[in-house]
């Protein structure tokens, strides 16, 4: 056929990664699968990562940036944060040469067809909720789907707020939406912008703030975390901000002045991402937290010190104490610390943690912090599944509550399948990324405790892989600028992984 172009020789295509080619200006990824080749979209539908920098293993292509993965055979989505499959292109192999056409194959129609009189309700239009409604349709459910959320805009990528919006790199209204604007009507998802004030799991009924009552056959609850305020005098002065929503990010941005002074309370991920972004916006930034080494609990002292040094090298000043009070009359003008230090401040960002937003839920088992205790199918009660930041779920003999974007979406996808009768256990390996001064750090797995850190690479140059190891087994991995290797490790962490095998996989992934 005339529009096929010869693009490669089969024997020269590696099997452990994709190869990017261009046909008529169209970037296409060739992925070799034995003697066959697939031609797929070359950039990730999530945020545009070049997929040739990812890894190929166990029949899947793994994105380097945030580890979405796709089935090689047909580009189907296997794991988020992408929510769409890859486009496919016609390809053929003749006499060892690979020919591709730049005209994508027609994707199967994705509109829901058929009849089903059940009503599925999803509460919380964030990471988990949006993934759930998408998966309900991807799994062929044609009945009514209602997505109730109290944020005014269509679901968006919350993770961009602390990284790009506060830095002035992305206007709040340009934060990427999670689904295209025309998708909701095409998929017949009924978006309801309202607050749920009462969820009665036994009666299978949700009541909205305006009095409407919604009955459901099955529901997925993903109301996320509520950013917690400071509990000191002055905490509610204008200029003191929490950061969870687009509106809150916009309010912070409105107070950002180059040469202005910001105090960040809390040295967790949100606090330090905000510190990095506010430095980029030209502000002087002081971070206040009782423990001087950020992330020491999650990653250990040595890696924690690396994060602190990265921030200090970029002008952030740390104070190892707590806030005694926020000073100001009509608005904040400073912060007094418990050690007596007074810091001038034009704005304060509070990042001291979140609490699961479940006060309105009745008829389920709740933890002290408001988290919902789920079974391994992510079920909270008959007809009710839950996921995301509110979920406490069992895995490998531990109870986990994990505040990660990708994991919330994985919950949503699995719960959707189970609402349709799949009866699958949740087994995904947690993955988290965080962004500071232009560097993306990755955290794979989950380690409560470990007895050694094995580090390969250069912490001071932010190019390394650290294995958190307990009794010779890798519990978790922290890494920066080693994305193909972490794509392999994330897959491998699904099974017990010893240190030697982990380094072997790293070497294999990074072989040129
Ligand atoms: C600024 C920021 C940056 C982040 N960056 C990263 C990152 O880089 N990597 C990462 O892995 N994770 C990151 N996270 C964490 C990640 O965003 C969360 O783990 C994830 O959003 C959890 O998904 P969720 O669906 O449980 O909750 P959410 O995404 O918060 O969605 C919950 C939704 O439910 C709504 N809601 C709550 N109560 C009700 C109610 N009663 N009625 C109706 N609606 C309700 C909320 O308003 C919200 O829209 C970040 C979080 C924030 C705030
Ligand atoms: S760009 Fe591929 S998962 Fe984010």
Describe the overall structure:
By secondary structure, the chain is an alpha/beta fold. The protein folds into 4 domains: 4-101, Rieske Iron-sulfur Protein (3-layer Sandwich), CATH 2.102.10.10; 119-226 and 355-419, FAD/NAD(P)-binding domain, CATH 3.50.50.60; 240-352, FAD/NAD(P)-binding domain; 438-510, FAD/NAD-linked reductase, C-terminal dimerisation domain (Enolase-like, domain 1, 2-Layer Sandwich), CATH 3.30.390.30. The protein contains 10 helices and 39 strands. It has a 6-stranded mixed β-sheet. Strands 20-27-21-22-23 form a 5-stranded parallel β-sheet, covered by helices on one side. Strands 35-36-39-38-37 form a 5-stranded antiparallel β-sheet. A hairpin with a 2-residue loop joins strand 10 (91-94) and strand 11 (97-101). It is globular and about 80 Å long. The structure holds flavin-adenine dinucleotide and FE2/S2 (inorganic) cluster. FE2/S2 (inorganic) cluster binds at residues 44, 46-47, 49, 63, 65-66, 68, 81-82. Its cofactor is FAD. One of its GO terms (molecular function) is oxidoreductase activity, acting on NAD(P)H. It comes from Pseudomonas mangiferae. Keywords: 2Fe-2S, FAD, Flavoprotein, Iron, Iron-sulfur, Metal-binding, Oxidoreductase. It holds the Pfam family Rieske.
């Amino acid at each position: 056929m005339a529009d096929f172009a010869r693009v490669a020789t089969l024997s020269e295509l590696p099997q452990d990664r994709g190869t990017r080619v261009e046909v008529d200006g169209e970037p296409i990824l060739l992925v070799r699968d034995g003697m066959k080749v697939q031609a797929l979209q070359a950039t990730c539908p999530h945020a545009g990562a070049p997929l040739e920098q990812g890894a190929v293993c166990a029949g899947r292509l793994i994105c380097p940036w945030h580890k979405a993965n796709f089935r090689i055979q047909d580009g189907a989505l296997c794991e988020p944060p992408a929510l769409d499959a890859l486009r496919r292109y016609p390809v053929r192999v003749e006499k060892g040469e690979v020919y591709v056409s730049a005209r994508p194959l027609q994707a199967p129609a994705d509109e829901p067809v058929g009849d089903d009189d059940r009503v599925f309700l999803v509460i919380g239009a964030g990471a988990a909720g949006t993934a759930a409604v998408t998966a309900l349709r991807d799994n062929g459910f044609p009945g009514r789907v209602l997505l109730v959320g109290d944020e005014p805009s269509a679901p968006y990528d919350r993770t961009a707020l602390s990284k790009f919006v506060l830095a002035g790199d992305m206007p709040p209204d340009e934060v990427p939406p999670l689904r295209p604007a025309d998708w909701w009507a095409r998929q017949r998802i009924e978006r309801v912008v309202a607050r749920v004030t009462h969820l009665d799991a036994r009666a299978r009924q949700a009541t909205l703030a305006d009095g409407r009552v919604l009955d459901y056959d099955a529901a997925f609850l993903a109301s996320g975390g509520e950013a917690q305020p400071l509990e000191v005098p002055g905490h509610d002065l204008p200029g003191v901000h929490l950061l969870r929503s687009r509106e809150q990010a916009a309010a912070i941005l409105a107070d950002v002045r180059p040469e202005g002074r910001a105090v960040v309370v809390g040295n967790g991920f949100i606090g330090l991402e905000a510190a990095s972004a506010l430095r980029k916006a030209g502000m002087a930034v002081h971070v206040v937290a009782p423990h001087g080494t950020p992330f020491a609990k999650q990653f250990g002292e040595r890696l924690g010190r690396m994060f602190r040094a990265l921030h200090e090298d970029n002008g952030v000043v740390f104070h190892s104490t707590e806030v005694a009070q926020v000073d100001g009359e009509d608005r904040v003008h400073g912060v007094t610390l418990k050690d007596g230090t007074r810091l001038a401040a034009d704005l304060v960002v509070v990042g001291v943690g979140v609490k699961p937003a479940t006060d309105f839920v009745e008829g389920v088992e709740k933890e002290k912090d408001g988290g919902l205790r789920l079974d391994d199918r992510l079920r909270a009660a008959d007809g009710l599944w839950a996921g995301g930041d509110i979920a406490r779920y069992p895995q490998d003999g531990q109870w986990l509550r994990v505040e990660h974007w990708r994991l919330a979406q994985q919950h949503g996808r699995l719960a959707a399948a189970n609402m349709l009768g799949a009866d699958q256990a949740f087994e995904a390996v947690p993955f988290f990324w965080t962004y500071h001064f232009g560097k993306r750090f990755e955290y794979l797995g989950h380690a409560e405790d470990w007895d050694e850190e094995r580090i390969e690479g250069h912490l001071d140059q932010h190019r390394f892989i650290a294995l958190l190891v307990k009794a010779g087994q890798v519990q978790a991995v922290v890494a920066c600028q080693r994305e193909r290797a972490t794509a392999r490790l994330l897959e491998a962490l699904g099974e017990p992984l010893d240190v030697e095998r982990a380094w072997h996989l790293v070497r294999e992934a990074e072989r040129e």
